[in-house]
Structure formats: structure tokens, C-alpha cells
Amino acid sequence: MSAAKQIDPSVMPIFKDKIKLIQTGEGAIYLVGPIKLPVHLFEDTVQFQWYCWLNCTEITEDFERIIDKLSSANLAEFQQSSVLVHGDFKHAEDALIRMHSICHTGDIFGSKRCDCGYQLKTSMKEIAEHGAGALFYLANHEGRGIGLFSKALAYILQENGFDTVDANLKLGFVDDSRNYSDAIHVLKELRTKPVTLMTNNPKKVQALKQAGLNVANRVELWGDVSEYNEKYLQTKIARSGHEGANRSESVSRSCDCE
Predict the structure, then answer these.
(1) Is 53 part of any domain?
(2) H or E segment at 27?
(3) CA-CA distance, 22 to 11, in Å (whole number)?
(4) Cα 5 to chain center, whole Å?
(5) DSSP string, 69-88
(6) Could you give the C-alpha distances from 138 to 79, 144, 162, 178, in angstroms and in order?
(7) Residue 258: strand, helix, or coil
(8) Residues 5-40: pLDDT tens digits?
(9) Measured distance CA(175)–CA(7) in Å, rounded
């Protein structure tokens, strides 16, 4: 393998005002953006502003030092989270946000075992139609925090009669181990006004409020129920507290893939 090269210093001025340092209790988040990102969404092209962030223990405003380390860090093996912003997110009085947990099978392959792919696209559409909002795509949330390989094992258990919750528990995990602290740090950098959270999970609203998120309201995100995910959705309602306007109709509609 060839030795890592350092960044060409002549390009550093291009990054001026595009990298921000957000200090946390355990280090720093380096936020890159905004970057223009036209997105094909339900036959339309919608303009978003894209940000990505990197969590580091080192705290420095010498961004060239941080960038120099990237070529030797092999970051391709470690997914980073990001956020899509639409409209005047900073100043709009009312803004929609979605904290979307990565779902390799649903978001990429279009798996019908869950409704994640549907919720990803639909939440982006809702944000665009609303006029202002942000979708946080959280890379370390696969399988509610157990990771892709463990999720594959959980799927095998589900094919042998275990529900979603018990499959995680049998593998030695808690039902939900996701952490939203980094996303909330980034959100506070982009907006200080209250937000409306898109989720069917009231427990998530409470958890985010306790973590410091200024949540003014919650809206539901329903759809894409099928024969392949009915048991999964029933488990979400019966064991994880997900709800809609009418709980008796929830299974026939859908549930939040979170």
C-alpha cells in the first residue's frame, strides 16, 4: 500500500466557511457543508443542501491538520452520518425534521421486511413540500444500533419465529441502543428554533427532548404496509409503543421503522 499523501495546501481556501468545529463533551464534531445536492424525488428534482460530519477526539481549528489525516484513516470502512437540509432551515418558524436510522436492506435494496425505504423517501418529500426542514441520516443506527452483521443474525432468528425485539435480546443486545447526541449537536448548530419531529414513536420524542432537542410537535409517517412486514409492524405497536391517530388501524397502515 502506498504511503498516504497530504492535502495540497492550495485548495484549503476553497474550504473556507465550509468546515465548522462543534465542541462536544468528548471531543469535536467537524461539520462540512452546505453542499448543493439536487435529489430525484418522486419524478421531481428537489434542491437540498447536504452536510456531513466527522466525530473526532482531537479538537482543533487547524482543519488542514484534520484533513491531512483522512487519507491514512481509511474512513471508507467507517460510515459517517449526514443531513439533508431544505429551505431556510435556520430561520423558518416551522421546520420538519426526521432522524432516520440507516437501513441497508430497506434504504438501498428496497426490502419489504420493513418500511424504512418508504419512510426515507416520504420524509424527504414531506420536508420539501413543507418548505423547510432537515433529514438526518444516522449511519451508526443499523438495526436500532446492533450493526449490519448482527442485524443479519437477527433476521435469521426472525425467520425462525422470534419477533424483532426478542431477536435482538437473544443476541445479547438491548432492544434499542441508538444514540442521538451527535445529531443533536449538529442540529443546534444549524437551527435554534423548535422543530416538528416526524416519527410514530412517542418514546423517541421523549428521548430526544431529554437529550436537549427543542421539539414543538410530532407528526406521523405512515404507509407501505405489506404481507412481508405485518408481523414486524405488529411488534412495533405491541412492544415498542409506536402509535398512530388510531391504534386499531395502525397495523393495516404501517409503523415507524425505527
Answers:
(1) yes
(2) strand 27-41
(3) 22
(4) 32
(5) HHHHHTGGGS---EEEEESS
(6) 9, 10, 26, 9
(7) coil
(8) 778 888 889 898 999 999 998 899 999 999 999 998
(9) 43
Contact 229, 158 (CB under 8 A): no
pLDDT per residue as tens digits for the range 30-82: 999 999 999 988 888 999 999 999 988 999 999 998 888 887 776 666 779 99
Residue 183 near residue 136 (C-beta atoms within 8 A): yes
Q: Residue 124 is part of which domain span? A: 9-253
Most confident stretch, 109-113, 181-185, 209-213, 227-231 = 181-185
Instruction: State the catalytic residue, choosing from 107, 115, 176, 182.
Output: 176
Is 256 among the residues known to form the active site?
no
Total of domains in the chain? 1
Q: Taking a C-beta distance cutoff of 8 angstroms, is the pair 192, 91 a contact?
A: no
Instruction: Reply yes or no on whether 176 is catalytic.
Output: yes
CATH number at residue 64: 3.40.50.10990
Which listed residue (178, 182, 191, 256) is catalytic?
A: 178
Give yes or no for a contact between 115 and 105, defined as CB atoms under 8 angstroms apart: no
Distances (CA, A) of 55 to 7, 20, 134: 20, 12, 20
